[in-house]
């Protein structure tokens, strides 16, 4: 990466951010006060905002950068158009940067938006100068995407597509609604500024604000609040630990509309091959992270060795319980499938299933008890 002072200034990016930002900050409030906006204009802004944002999270991020699922050409086309509307460069370019972000996360020389260079740099500063110089034409880490016709078509026609969507959609909506200027300010400019900064938060705030749950190998954090404006991308510690998982919020109560959209599309066959990290691996990562954290704190104590030994013993018990529960659960599911095929109730298989079900309930209780026990112990030390 080129040093800050030597990197050429990107006047186009600066102009876009500055002009749209100033209109959003000054002109739009004045227009709201003197002229007002209708409910329809606000709704159009919110819908366009959602379309842009989800095209980035569902498409650019989870589909193309990480290949967490596959989608038919109709879904890919809609997401490619939404990505141009979001004005965040082509799929090919965005994914190349993002794959480098994961591969070299927090490395100030190689991570294009390294959070270790501070909030401003990781939020927007990295786009104000051409820090990567010649490398920007090098797409060797996205060779697989170059086989996707829609990706290459969008890359080739990115500028006309970006102009057509960003000018065409708001102007058309304004013409239909009878007030071109108001609609353009709302669904054109305000939508673009909000859409930009909400996405930029994933590179800046999601690496600063929140808690680590699964790994301390990177600065990425889990943050419910951030998920509200990033369509579920706030669970960034999980994402950087299990990047191949189509979910970012893994609990049913996590706010992750991108996950819900991908799952819903799979029910009608528009998406398929949804990849998930095994629950066992997730539990192991959580336990390992807690152990590391508590150990770090314990090292400062005078009788650290004895405490660490106790903690490690409990950790080993926890790992055994995790393995016992999930391997039994897997056997149970396999056996159930077998039963479905043969459909033989009250047979040996049926009895085995009953026994195993009881065993699973007990194992789950034991696992929960050990998880609580370990959480209490590690909390006591941290
Ligand atoms: Zn990612
Ligand atoms: Zn990140």
Topology record:
Layout (H helix, E strand, L loop, with lengths): L10 H24 L4 H27 L4 E2 L1 H13 L5 H13 L15 H5 L25 H8 L1 H20 L2 H24 L20 H6 L6 H6 L15 H11 L3 E2 L6 H20 L5 H39 L5 H34 L1
Antiparallel strand pairs: 1-2
The structure holds zinc ion (2 copies).
The site of one zinc ion has 5 residues, from helix 10.
What does this structure look like?
- It is a single chain.
- It is built from 14 helices and 2 strands; from the N terminus they run H-H-E-H-H-H-H-H-H-H-H-H-E-H-H-H.
- The chain has 382 residues and is an all-alpha fold.
- It has 2 domains: 11-272, no CATH class; 279-381.
- The protein has a two-stranded antiparallel sheet.
- Helix 1 packs across helix 8 (180-203), helix 2 runs parallel beside helix 8 (180-203) and helix 12 runs parallel beside helix 14 (348-381).
- The relative contact order is 0.09.
- Bound molecules: zinc ion (ZN) (2 copies).
- One zinc ion is lined by residues 61, 65-66, 98, 102, 239, 243.
Summarize the structure.
With 382 residues, the protein is an all-alpha fold.
Mean pLDDT across all amino acids: 92
Helical segment count: 14
Helical fraction equals 55-70%
Overall radius of gyration: 25 Å
The percentage of residues in β strands lies in under 5%
Number of structural domains: 2
Shape: globular
Q: Outline the biggest β-sheet.
A: 2 strands, antiparallel
Q: What are its keywords?
A:
382 residues, mainly alpha, 2 domains, globular, binds zinc ion
């Amino acid at each position: 990466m080129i040093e800050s002072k030597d990197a050429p200034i990107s006047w186009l990016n600066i102009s876009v951010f500055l002009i749209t930002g100033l209109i959003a900050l000054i002109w739009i409030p004045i227009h709201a006060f003197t002229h007002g906006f209708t409910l329809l204009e606000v709704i159009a802004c919110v819908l366009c905002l959602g379309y842009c944002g989800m095209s980035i999270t569902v498409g650019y991020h989870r589909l193309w950068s990480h290949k967490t699922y596959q989608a038919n050409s109709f879904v890919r086309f809609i997401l490619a158009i939404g990505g141009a509307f979001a004005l965040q460069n082509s799929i090919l370019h965005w994914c190349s940067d993002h794959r480098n972000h994961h591969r070299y996360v927090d490395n100030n020389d190689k991570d294009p938006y390294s959070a270790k260079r501070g909030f401003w740099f990781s939020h927007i500063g990295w786009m104000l100068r051409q820090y990567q110089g010649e490398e920007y034409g090098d797409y060797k880490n996205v060779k697989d995407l170059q086989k996707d016709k829609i990706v290459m078509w969008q890359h080739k026609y990115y500028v006309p597509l970006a102009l057509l969507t960003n000018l065409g959609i708001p102007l058309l909506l304004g013409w239909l609604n009878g007030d071109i200027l108001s609609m353009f300010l709302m669904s054109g400019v305000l939508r673009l500024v909000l859409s930009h900064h909400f996405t930029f938060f994933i590179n800046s705030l999601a690496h600063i604000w929140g808690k680590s749950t699964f790994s301390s190998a990177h600065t990425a954090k889990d943050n419910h609040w951030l998920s509200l404006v990033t369509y579920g991308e706030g669970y960034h510690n999980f994402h950087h630990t299990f990047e191949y998982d189509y979910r970012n919020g893994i609990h049913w109560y996590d706010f992750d509309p991108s996950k819900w959209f991908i799952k819903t599309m799979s029910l009608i066959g528009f998406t398929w091959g949804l990849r998930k990290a095994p629950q066992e691996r997730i539990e192991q990562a959580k336990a390992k992270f807690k152990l590391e954290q508590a150990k770090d704190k314990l090292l400062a104590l005078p009788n650290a060795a004895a405490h660490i030994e106790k903690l490690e013993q409990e950790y080993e018990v926890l790992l055994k319980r995790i393995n016992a529960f999930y391997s039994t659960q897997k056997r149970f599911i396999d056996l159930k499938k077998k039963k479905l095929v043969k459909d033989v109730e009250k047979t040996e298989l049926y009895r085995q299933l009953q026994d195993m079900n009881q065993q699973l309930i007990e194992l789950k209780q034991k696992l929960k008890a050990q998880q609580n026990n370990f959480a209490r112990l590690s909390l006591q030390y941290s």
